[in-house]
Design a protein that fits this description.
38% helix; 2 helices
Amino acid sequence: MSARHITLAMGLATLLALGACGEKPQGMGGVKSDQPPYAGVGNSQYANKGWKAGDKSSWEQQLKSRSQYGQNDYSRTAN
């Protein structure tokens, strides 16, 4: 290989390596809330019956029970 081919190959490798540096962050975006997650959204049809908005221990208990169900609401049977 000649020096010209080696220089061209090195330049191409440098461009490919630097191309990965231009990726934009892939964050969720959206609206940020100053309220803690357990504060809730008020009276919602999607809120679970045992959960009380604003009660941190109730919120943690609901998260724990959801993880025990496999976090799939469709697989649970209706009572």
